[in-house]
Amino acid sequence: MPNEQKISRAVVSRLPKYYRYLGEAHDQGIKRTSSKKLSEIMNITASQIRQDLNNFGSFGLQGYGYDTELLYNEIGKILGLDKKHKLILIGCGKIGQALLKYEYFTSRGFTFEAAFDKSEDLIGTTVNGVKIHDVSELADYLSTHHINIVALTIPKGHIGNTVDIINKSSVQGVWNFINMDIEFREGIKVENVHLMDSLMTLSYKIDEDEIINRYNVTTKGEAIK
Amino acid sequence: MPNEQKISRAVVSRLPKYYRYLGEAHDQGIKRTSSKKLSEIMNITASQIRQDLNNFGSFGLQGYGYDTELLYNEIGKILGLDKKHKLILIGCGKIGQALLKYEYFTSRGFTFEAAFDKSEDLIGTTVNGVKIHDVSELADYLSTHHINIVALTIPKGHIGNTVDIINKSSVQGVWNFINMDIEFREGIKVENVHLMDSLMTLSYKIDEDEIINRYNVTTKGEAIK
DNA sequence: TAGATTGTTAATCGATTAACAATC
DNA sequence: TAGATTGTTAATCGATTAACAATC
Lengths: 225, 225
Description:
Number of helices of chain A: 10
Order of helices and strands of chain A: HEHHEHEHHEEEHEHEEHH
Oligomer: homodimer
Number of strands of chain A: 9
Shape of chain A: globular
Distance between the termini of chain A: 57 Å
Mean pLDDT of chain A: 92
């Protein structure tokens, strides 16, 4: 609150990657690492790694480097993985069910407490131990259970009053798989997974050289010569 | 080739977003727009929008703005959406099947030609009209069919020689849902969907203020006063 | 001790924002 | 014509890289 010095999104986006590589190193029994060693396996400069870490503290030792496990755990704490996170799922289509079944989330402290759908065929059934409720019970559920994160996996056209219900709850974050940007109330953090955007980006990359050339030649005089 | 002036990743990541908003405006019958109007609905500065577009050409008219449909189509072309893309799916779990069923991909020219899995229960069946083959036929399939993009949705531990097979094929891009960074041969473009990273990022955002405070107080002297 | 590597400051590079002439 | 808005150049801001003193 006093020192509201935000960390840049570029840094934050690298944290899970550090966590992943440190976890692998730790699993391989590597007790000690350094910004130089990490930079080689991660394709990030050693300087950037040290700068990134220094946003949060000093975790290394001069002349030695970093203790793999210690750094792994520290980054885990920065990412909030030392806490339990309670999730609910709204929308139990294929993607939603995939999330319910992905054990890796549970092992990192993210557990689905309930799921919601409007399909009669799904309501009352259970996926990986998680019960699917009628979505009409959503507002009531959220007012009687403390939930940290909502995973939103309903089709774009079926949102209805879901956003309102979430805004009136004490939910802290929304993991949004719907292919649109949704504004929630102040205080609710949003992380988007826009699959269509991702696929379009891949399509762009594939033809990038050709595309740049096309537009350079067409529109920029000097590019012809 | 002559003017290999790469476009920054920051710009590229905004292109699908422009495409999305322009598509919505077009659907609403809005014939004409401007960097100012777009900036208001997209929370991007007008200046940045104009800079981004100018990487590819001049699509507007002074004093007028942009023709919604024209700009929509131009960005579509930049993203390669004027071409057909043939995909195959490797790994027919829940996420894979979700991809097979998502009609929006097809409507943008991305079609799944075949799917592969190792489960006896799935081989020979069909999901949304796409036949599931034995993964042992993958190398043979890729050598006899021209495929642009591979969607990789197998569990981390079951990769086997899949990467080798892809590297030996003429595939242009890999849409990777496996929670690890995979190096493919030169020329194959990769787009990652790291769901665990995404969820960790959300977890970070939720506790961001607290985390920054914790580390500031602990490690930075001046933050205490 | 000599070598290694951090934490951190300074330099560079790149991306975003501002400004404005051109012109519809 | 007057007003609007582009395309583009210049200014600013922020992120990355380089350098190095501190020190294990």
